[in-house]
Design goal:
This is EngB-type G domain-containing protein. The protein is an alpha/beta fold. The protein contains six helices and seven strands; from the N terminus they run E-E-H-H-E-E-H-E-H-E-H-E-H.
């Protein structure tokens, strides 16, 4: 699936404008600055062409990208900006929640967590929601190059243990660095396999 051409095909500010769910879908979520754009870029090697701005203060949309006619990649707006207006925050959080808990064809949510900082309250909120809606998700530790390998392993164990009681989480978690390229191929393989079923 990842050999196909990546094409932007929809941006949604409300669930009423989500495109028809014709393809298996994989969504990417996480706090702002977690490395989501860099990861999508590394995975597809084509992101630069289509990437729309995802910076604080600007309009937040859910962006849908098609990889050939095989797979839809969904870029969810980052959450947790310290300085976004409260009403803006609430609007996009509602949108993300609605997408994650109701979307037909959503096969997997990759929840990106910065290896150095670990899980925060907002991440747990999203996890709770996905557990309630039985949405399959998996944790992807990002920026593994920023800490020592022993700390990557510690973080992975800590998170996996905190999720042992959860039913919708897909273990083991994945670990990537968009900078060094570590883990990118493995993640691509995992995601391509999802598209096949
Ligand atoms: P987003 O806000 O989640 O889309 O995050 P970006 O992909 O824009 O990355 C946020 C910052 O983290 C940027 O300065 C990136 O250069 C940096 N970054 C992203 N991925 C990595 C990584 O794997 N390693 C390191 N060291 N820095 C990264």
């Amino acid at each position: 699936a990842f050999r196909n051409k990546l094409e932007f095909f929809a941006a949604a500010k409300a669930s009423s404008s989500f495109p028809a769910p014709n393809l298996p879908e994989i969504a990417f979520a996480g706090r702002s600055n977690v490395g989501k754009s860099s990861l999508l870029n590394a995975l597809t090697r084509q992101w630069g062409v289509v990437r729309t701005s995802d910076k604080p203060g600007l309009t937040q949309t859910i962006n849908f990208f098609q990889l050939g006619k095989k797979l839809c990649l969904v870029d969810l707006p980052g959450y947790g900006f310290a300085y976004a207006k409260e009403e803006v925050k609430e609007a996009w959080e509602e949108l993300v929640k609605e997408y994650v808990s109701t979307r037909v064809g959503l096969k997997r949510v990759c929840l990106l967590i910065d290896t150095k900082w670990g899980m925060k309250a907002r991440d747990y909120e999203l996890i709770e929601l996905m557990e309630r809606s039985k949405t399959k998700y998996q944790i992807v530790l990002t920026k593994t190059d920023t800490v020592f390998p022993i700390d990557v392993a510690r973080r992975a164990t800590q998170i996996e243990e905190s999720l042992l009681q959860n039913k919708s989480v897909v273990q083991p978690l994945m670990m990537v660095s968009s900078k060094s390229g570590a883990g990118i191929r493995s993640l691509r393989t995992v995601l391509a396999n999802i598209a096949r079923f």
